[in-house]
Amino acid sequence: MLFSGVKNMTSILEIENLFKTYPVSGGFFGGSKLKVHAVNGVSLQVAKGETLGIVGESGCGKTTLGLLFLRLLEPDSGKILFEGKDVTHLSQRSLRPVRSRMQMVFQDPYASLNPRMRAGEIIEEPLIIHKRGSAKQRQNEVMELLDLVGLKESDVDKYPHEFSGGQRQRIGIARAIALKPDLIIADEPVSALDVSIQGEIINLLKSLQQKFNLTYIFISHDLKVVSQISDRIAVMYLGKIVETFPATELNHVKHPYTQALLSAVPIPDPTLQRKRKPLEGDVPSQVKIPSGCSFHPRCPYREEICYTVEPPLEQKGSPDHIASCHFTNKVPKEIPI
Ligand code: SF4
Does ligand 1 have an atom closer than 6 angstroms to the CB of 254? Predict the structure, then answer.
C-alpha cells in the first residue's frame, strides 16, 4: 500500500485505508440507503515531531478524518495505529491512556469553551478527569500553563466572555497541552480569528512544539495558513488524499486541485495573479462521488480517461511527493505564490 506520507521515519500515528460514511437521513416514509462518503480510503503516516497540514475545501472530509484519528468517531473500516499499536478497536477504557497523549484544539474558541467555567477550571478539567496530581499541584500547573500560552495569572478566575478570540484560543491550547500530550490535532484553530491574531497563535503553536517536541496535525481550508506551520502538506478532496508533499515544494505542486487551492491564495502582483487558474464550481455531493477521477467535473486538464479511471497515488518528483492525477505534466512546473 502506498502511504500518503514520508518513508523511513518513526511514525507516531498511522492510518491505513480508513473509511467513514454517514447515512443520509430518510424522507417522510423512513430510512434512505444513501450514504455520505466522508472519508474514502485514506492512508497516512505522521512522523514524531513533525507538523502535517491537512488542507481542503469545506466538505472534503478533513474534520471527520481528525475526529477518526482520535477515535471520537468510529471508522467503518481501516486501521489506526498509535506508535505502532493498533487502537482501532480498543474499548473506551483501554483507549483512555492513549487519549491523554492525543489532544485536540477546536475550530471555534467562542463555542468550544464552557461559558459557565472559569479559565482556570477549563484548563484544570483534563487533569482532574485523568487524576493527575493533588489540588495544589494542579493549581500550580494551571498557573504555569497560563504563563506558557501568554496569559496572566490574574486571568485564572475570568470567564470565556471576558477574553478576546485570540485569548480564548490560548485557553483552548493550554487545556490541550495540560496532559503533556505527544500529538495535537488542531482543527481550523485560527480560522475564526483576525489575520493579525492568526500569526500570533501560529507562533505560539510553533514555540510549544519546540519546547515539548509535539507532533501536530493542522487542519485548515486555507493553504497559506497551513504552509506557515507545516513540514508536510496533505491535500484532501472528496474524502481522499490527492497529493502529499513537503511544504518546501509548495510552488511545485502536481495536482490540479492543489494548484487551484494555491491560486485562491491572494498575491499582490496582478500579473502573477492572472497566470493562475482559480477553482471553478462547487464541491460535488459526497453522496454521489463522480466516477474515475472525482475532480474531473472541475478540472481544466481532464481527458477521456479521467471520467472512468481513478488515478493512483504515485510518486511525482521527489520521493516524498505523491499525487493522484493522470496528467500532472499539464500542471505548470512552477505556480506563482
Ligand atoms: Fe484532472 Fe484528470 Fe488529473 Fe483528475 S486525473 S486531476 S481530471 S487531469
Answer: no
